[in-house]
């Protein structure tokens, strides 16, 4: 080496030294590549053998050395062995007390009487709830800030009944709902025509919404009219939504076709009723004969 360093190198010697350096560099790169591949296989092999567990990979970048290219970048796709990890549609929460589970920091609060108390921190809302012994109910979460209300247990129960009645009276998918409205001062022949129309719709298994408006100066009870209509079509119809006051001077109900089970029960009741009426008539005849 001293003779080489002391003397001037020829072009051939210089080229030879450069080639040797390149070969040493390539050798080191190959060793590094084999080591990287070995550790990468070991890492993923451990993960893939854990099939009994349920885990989820998040997307991440990995660098794979390559002899021909300096580096190859690839984005791994999320991998999941849990079938239930797919995005589930958000279910609407049932109306009721949320307890102390409030995910929002700021909320709009309404008091027990329905008056707005404005926006406040959830800690203040919980403090008011505890002070008055009330329950906190979520009314709307699609606004900013979400709206909550302080309510008693009785108020929550009544609201749940109203919503259940409304849901029950709303027509199901595929069911046709017909509507019929008239005044409480309707003439007898017009009422008969309306009742026949209702019977035809019931026969086709449609829902029929009947609305009666209280006429000025009329003393007719609207609920009596509803009962008369149901009695006329009672062989196949029943209330889906019982008569109620929709607003001042207006009452409504919804009729539907009875199910097969309900029809059988109705026929049994009619048979019992008719037999009871016949027994009463026979007893009256016997009593008359005895008095004669």
How would you describe this structure to a colleague?
- Among the domains are: 106-168, Ubiquitin-like (UB roll) (Roll); 171-260, Translation initiation factor 3 (IF-3), C-terminal domain (Translation Initiation Factor IF3).
- The chain has helices at 2-6, 11-48, 122-132, 153-169, 188-203, 222-232, 260-291, and strands at 61-64, 72-75, 106-110, 116-121, 135-140, 147-151, 177-183, 207-213, 237-247, 250-257.
- The protein has seven helices and ten strands.
- By secondary structure, the chain is α+β, with helices and mostly antiparallel strands.
- It is elongated, with a radius of gyration of 41 Å.
- A four-stranded mixed β-sheet has the order 4-3-6-5. A four-stranded mixed β-sheet has the order 7-8-10-9, sandwiched between helices. It has a two-stranded antiparallel sheet with strand order 1-2.
- A hairpin with a 5-residue loop joins β3 (106-110) and β4.
Low-confidence blocks of residues: 1-6, 51-89
Distance between the termini: 155 Å
Kindly name the structural category: alpha+beta
Query: Architecture of the domain at 171-260, CATH level 2?
Result: 2-Layer Sandwich
In CATH, the homologous superfamily of the domain at 171-260 goes by the name: Translation initiation factor 3 (IF-3), C-terminal domain
Tell me the number of strands: 10
Helical content (DSSP H or I, runs of 4+): 40-55%
What is the N-to-C order of secondary-structure elements (H for helix, E for strand)?
A: HHEEEEHEEHEHEHEEH
Q: Treating each run of at least 4 consecutive H or I residues as one helix, how many helices?
A: 7
> Could you report the average pLDDT, rounded to the nearest whole number?
76
Radius of gyration, in angstroms, nearest whole number: 41 Å
CATH topology of the domain at 171-260: Translation Initiation Factor IF3
What's the CATH class label of the domain at 171-260?
A: Alpha Beta
Described by strand count, sense and barrel closure, the largest sheet is:
4 strands, mixed
> Reading side by side through the largest sheet, how are the strands ordered?
4-3-6-5
Keywords: Initiation factor, Protein biosynthesis
Family: Belongs to the IF-3 family.
GO cellular component, one term: mitochondrion
Domain Translation initiation factor 3 N-terminal: 99-165
